[in-house]
Amino acid sequence: MTYILISNTTNQKINLDNLNFVSNEIQKLFNAKIQYNELSFNKAYEWDLPTNDIPYKILSFITDLKAQNKFDANIIKSKNKRKKKLLLADMDSTIIQEESLDELAKMIGKNKEIAQITKEAMEGKIDFKKALIERVSMLQGVSFEILERLQENIKINDGAKELIKTMKHNGAITVLVSGGFTFLTDYLKKILDFDFTHANSLQYFLNNQNKKILNGRVNEPILDNQAKLNYLNDYLNKNNLSPEDSICVGDGANDIDMIIKSGMGVAFNGKKALNQIADLHFKHTNLLGLLYAQGYSDKEINST
User: Fold this and answer.
1) How far is CA 184 from the centre of its chain?
2) How many C-beta atoms lie closer than 10 Å to residue 44's C-beta?
3) How many whole angstroms separate alpha carbon 165 and alpha carbon 267?
C-alpha cells in the first residue's frame, strides 16, 4: 500500500482548498478519483494511492507541494505492516527540544565552544565520538548537581507523550536510544514510560564534601551511530521482528544508520545529512506525525 500524507500541527492550516488541490492533482496523475481520509481535522490527511509504483511525476508533485505550502508532504510505503511494532527514538532535538550538552554548556558559560562542535557533529562534518569526548572534557570540575537542574529545564516536544502511549497501547516496544547521557534518558523513561533506554554515562568522583564532581570523561563504549544500529538489530532479533516492523526517528547524522535500516525512517526537523536519506520528513508537524504516518487517526491516539 502507498499513501500520500499531508500534515501540519503547528498552526492547523490545512484547508479545503488544499485538500481539493491535492485530490485533483492525484486524479490527473492516476486518472482515478481518490477521496482523502481525515486523520486529524485541519492537521493531517491521507490519500490511498491505487498503485505501489510511484511515477516520477508524483515525486515531483510532492517536492513542489512542500516548497509551495507550509505543511509536510510525505509518501508512505507500507508492506501490510503500517502500524509498527518497534520504535527507536533519538533524544536530543527529537524527544526533547534541546541539545542536552549545549544546555549544560550554557549553564557553565561555555555555550559558544560546545554548540559549534555539536552543530558540526549533527551535520556529519566531524566524527561523533571525537566530538562527544571533546565536549565532555569541557565539563571537568562541574558539580553533578547541574545535571539535576537540567532535568528540570528541558522541554519535551509536543506529541512525544501521545506517541509513546499510543504505540505501547497497540503492543509496540518503545526505546529511547541516545548519544546523550543516562541521567537524562533515565529521567525521560520515568516521565514518558519508554520500555527501554540506552545512552552514554558520565564519569565523576566524590570531593572532600562527598559531592559528585564530573571529571570530564565519558564511560566506554561510547554510544554512537553504529551503536544505535546495533540496538535496532538487537531488538528486532530478540522480538522476532523484521526491519519493516520498525520505525526510527532522529534529527542528525548520528541517526543515519538506524534510519536507513528501519521500515519507516523519519527525519524530525532533520539536518541536511539525515534529510538526504530519510523516508519521511516532518518540519511543520510535531511527533504526532509519526502516528499519522502509521495511519493512526486522532480518535486512536492515547493522550492520557
Assistant:
1) 16
2) 27
3) 21
Q: Does domain 1-77 have CATH number 3.30.160?
A: no
Q: At 92, give phi and psi (nearest 5°).
A: -65, 130
Cell numbers 522541554 correspond to what residue? 155
Which amino acid makes up residue 230? Answer: N
Given 90, 102, 251, 279, the catalytic residue? 90
| Joined grid coordinates for residue 212 | 559528585
Location of C-alpha cell 566506554: 220
Cell numbers that stand for 2 in this block: 502507498
Q: Which three cell numbers stand for residue 34?
A: 481518490
Q: Tell me the β-bridge partners of 205.
A: 213
Q: Is 17 a catalytic residue?
A: no
Residue ranges of domains in the chain: 1-77
- Write the pLDDT tens digit of every residue in 138-185: 999 999 899 989 998 999 999 999 999 999 999 999 999 999 999 999
Per-residue pLDDT tens digits for 198-257? 999 999 999 999 999 999 999 999 999 999 999 999 999 999 999 999 999 999 999 999
**212 bridge partner residues:** 206
* Catalytic residue, candidates 48, 64, 92, 257: 92
Query: Is residue 158 flagged as an active site residue?
Result: no
The grid coordinates of residue 140 equal 571537568
